[in-house]
Hints:
Shape: globular
Number of helices: 5
CATH topology of the domain at 2-141: lipopolysaccharide transport protein A fold
Distance between the termini: 3 Å
Oligomer: single chain
Low-confidence stretches: 1-22, 388-410
CATH class of the domain at 2-141: Mainly Beta
Helix content: under 10%
Amino acid sequence: MKNLIRTCSLIPLIFPVLPVSAQAPELSADAPIAYSEDTGMLIATGNAVYTDEDTTVEAEEILYNRDSNKIEASGNVRVTRKGIRLLANAVTYDASNKTFSADQFRAGYPPAFISGESFSGSLEQIDFNNIHLYFQEPVPGSAKLSVGRATYVSNEYLRAENVGFSTFGNFHLPLPGFTYVFGTPAIDLDVSAGYQDNLGAYLQTEWLYPFFQTLSLGANFDLYSQRGVLVGPVLEYRSQDRRIKAFLSSGWIQDNSRKERGIDILGEPIEEDRGFVDFGIQWRNEGSLQFQGRGTYLSDSEVLRDFRRNAYFDRFHPDTFADFTWQKSSFLLNVFARTQINDFYQMVERLPEVRAEWLPSEIARTGFYIQAAATATRYRLQEIIPSTGTVLFPSNSLGLPSMPIAGGLFPGDMVSSEVYQRLDGTATITRPFHGPSGIDLVLRGGARWSYYTSDNPFPSGTTSDERLMGELGFDLSQTLARTYSVELPKLGIEKLYHQSRVSLKYRWHPGAEEAPNAPPFDLYPYHASPTTLDLADLWQVDGLRDWSVARFGWEHELMVAGSEGNYRDFLRLNFYQDLLLSEDRGEDQWEAFYAQLDFTPAAWFRLQFAQKFRPEGFTNEAAFMRATVRSSDLWSVSFQAEYLKSAIEQYRVDGWYRLSETVGLFGNWQYDAFLKTWSLQRYGVSKRFANTWQVELYLTLTDADDRRGDFGVGIRVNWLSF
């Protein structure tokens, strides 16, 4: 339904006015142009044609009054303007006040098509009577929206009365009249059905309807033959000034299958009453203030995985937070709060965290720049104990300690640590120098001070501790660029732009061992790509260490252009090598080597690759690769590989093939090398009906998924219009 609302923004083009252009209008016909002294009209008959700068009107007869600048066209009227086609019995346009009208019209501005009894209005407002709207070219059985009366106000709203939805000729569904404000939530409908071992036969639906200008209401409504009925309200809100956005999606089910409910990630039996609530809000003013909040409540760790699998991948470790930011010139004030409202995920809660940040600014025109930040945090750890069975990622880059990630836990309890307070301040001074031949040098120096307090004594017997760290370093780089003329006619390439950049970054951070009582909460999260080196931007405040590191970089960017002269991305190739100069026992001095590639030689092929490699041990720690080959809209094949040492090794193939204009085949295959099994196989066929919706029928085979049956069939309806 969202596509329909977007179509309304094209109405001024579908029903064009005939403006007075800089180019003088021309009037022609098969018969000689006649002039009526009584009416002051030029009369063109027999294939009459009126043209101006961007509009052509064809009709059996056209009357044109040069004094009043008015046109009256009748008899098989055809209006063409910038790819638009309008057919009507009669069209009248008064250029003096820019108003127009037509009766029994049909108009097309692909993919929008409209027909109706009459319309009249101006650029600012158009009134319609008895119209039918199609999103694709009408064919027998096409879905359409019938509107008795409608008013369109440019860039503001569309008001409709006597609305009905029709499809397949006989089916007709009356709908409430509505006033739609452009940019606010629109009519939306998502339907899927099928059979799955752990669900039985099922029907999943989610719908929204704009009952008010700013508010759309709807519901999640699912039927499962083995599990029960899931139902819950859905809403979307957007204020008229578009500064406030909010949403809510929920569902509740009395799950009848004790066997399929099983246990949660803590090993506890899942209760019969299950549900979820996902909500969020955003607010901003004209630029200096903004607020956002997001939260997800789950009755158990597996409810989304069972009944909203697509949402589960986005919210498998749900977060609940509120974030407020105020900006004035180069100063930012941020208040951030996070709390855990679920009982089965670890989280470091912020209760809250207040941060003031001064963006880089020059010191009295000296060429030196200063930036600073101060943070006050009250935080605690919501921890699952015992945490046996946790997964540790591979050795972290730069010799920083690994942070355990919960997974495969044995039965445990959520335990709250005591609350700690932390003051954290940073200040950095930089001095950039720009030399010849693209050479740039940035010198930097800074400090970071952290102060910890607790209501209870630390192991050392004190209730406070502090750390003062320094930073010295530099960024040295040279950037070279050149444009070449080449001849690659098969790829449509005539010019190539190449930019190369070599860089050396060095950082020394002394003094990290001064706070042995810092709570181990904000530690280093694992990254498979190069991390920041700047002391002020390091996130692992509680896990900082005395270290010295150098990073070598070599970056390439190639862009190509054809005869039209427009450049596009062709190749990005980057290499980075970290050298750890303060390694401890067991650490590699030649730290991780990173490679990144994004190659698009033509529209039909793209290759992406990223790797993290350990040179001293000659081991591949992490890698990602995706290659896509397509033949226009006829077929496409994509291969993807993901690898993380001792944790992940998966391969996936996705493909589709178009058999005809309306029928296609698709499939997905995923292999897990650790489990040595095909974890997912999907085979499907798609069919487009009446240019209105796409219906997909598929068979799914899965393995090694405790929350999903081994076999399933499904049908999904994707609405192409309305």
